[in-house]
Design brief:
2 copies of one chain form a homodimer.
Chain A: E1 12-16, H1 21-32, E2 36-41, H2 44-58, E3 67-71, H3 72-77, E4 81-84, H4 91-102, E5 106-109, E6 114-117, E7 120-123, H5 133-140, E8 145-148, H6 155-160, E9 170-173, H7 176-190, E10 195-196, H8 203-220, E11 225-229
């Protein structure tokens, strides 16, 4: 795979949960492909330490953006785009605490509400089956433009490899402009634009789909992903 | 893609809903690759007419199986494996009416409980988010071995083309033996075994995922499918 980036817009992305594996990995990919990232954490120092790790990997990368760390609210204030990469436990409270800052921003949720038991991974039931983490964020931060994306991209590959991942990022949302941001950013991960997968409510499917991939990973000892076939990328 | 079939077991498959596009298309693929199919319908004559159409396409195909039609209960009685390819409306009642015959058989559900409104396709909420069509079938026909598979394979390609489809069939179920049947049969459609996607409850994800593919199809004017990456097929 060639390292060309389809996106031409340079975004500043705050990564809430930026010290976790998914946030750090996605942030790294965004910065590697020319976007600026502000990793957010409850404690600024922790975010700064991880940002330093990311910055180290950007040295000498042609056209790379920048990485820095900040407390969550400061990270959001510095960005046009906010990636929510936090565990589902505590998600609603965290979004509520940041809702003022999220107003007017594009918020990309990759939050996967999963549960695990003896039978493996499965989706947690939200709002009696009529909700999802992304829809909860949209409800709690009504002045943000919330989209769902990057649910099914496994963290180990994001951080552990340099090549584009052989999979697709499916983006859902009720705002075409909001979806376009995630579609652009997906190119930093896969080398091609994200795939518009429809309305925000379909996050109810993308979020628990990760449980299927986890099951496949266990069975086949691999890191699986999804590709959408039939598209002319 | 080459027309080799990975499966060596020859199954007799009753296709309930065998006169609908999904059932007819899957039945045709199974028969084309050496399995025997009995298309089932409420009226035997209708099933026989569609079976004749399928048989016509099997003429001269090396190693093809046979296709015939029958009333649903007779189709089931003649088969080891039953494919449920019926609309979700009326699904539970139909399964209840056939439950005695299904006892002891492997039942593969490809039923997609979808709803459509102005905002597009989306999954219907079953049992407050804790159920799926496949789980309903398992509950209603407790002596059958129910697995879920073939949810995301689009009918037009099944009937309209002869080549293997460039996608994967994900199989879920609580019985390894039951899943193996669907994994084998998947090779008739994709040229490679189906992918074991975990427990039956994950049908809650595979069934509404079809709504995502329908949204993609509308947006990109295509017939999309899923491929699982990271597998060494």
């Amino acid at each position: 795979m060639t390292e060309t980036t389809a996106s031409t817009t340079r975004y500043t992305v705050a990564v809430i949960g930026g010290t976790g594996p998914q946030g750090k990995g996605l942030g790294y990919r965004f910065a590697r492909h020319g976007h600026d990232i502000v990793l957010g954490s409850r404690a600024a120092e922790k975010a700064e330490a991880v940002a330093a790790e990311v910055s180290e990997r950007l040295v000498g990368v042609d056209g790379a953006g920048t990485a820095r760390g900040a407390a969550n609210a400061d990270a959001i204030a510095a960005a046009d785009v906010v990636l929510l990469a936090v565990p589902y436990d505590g998600h609603d409270e965290l979004v509520a605490s940041l809702a003022d800052g999220l107003a007017g921003k594009t918020v990309i949720s990759c939050v996967n509400p999963l549960a695990f038991d003896k039978r493996g991974a499965h989706g947690r039931v939200i709002d009696d089956g009529e909700g999802s983490a992304a829809e909860s964020a949209a409800r709690i931060a009504p002045e943000a433009t919330v989209v769902g994306a990057f649910h099914n991209v496994a963290a180990p590959g994001l951080w552990g490899e340099e090549e584009f991942l052989d999979e697709d990022v499916i983006v859902v949302g009720d705002s075409a402009e909001g979806k376009q941001v995630a579609i652009d950013l997906a190119a930093s991960v896969t080398g091609r634009p994200g795939v518009d997968g429809g309305k925000l409510r379909l996050a109810r499917v993308l979020e628990p789909f990760t449980a299927v991939l986890i099951s496949i990973n266990r069975k086949y000892k691999t890191h699986s992903g999804i590709r959408v076939t039939g598209l002319d990328h």
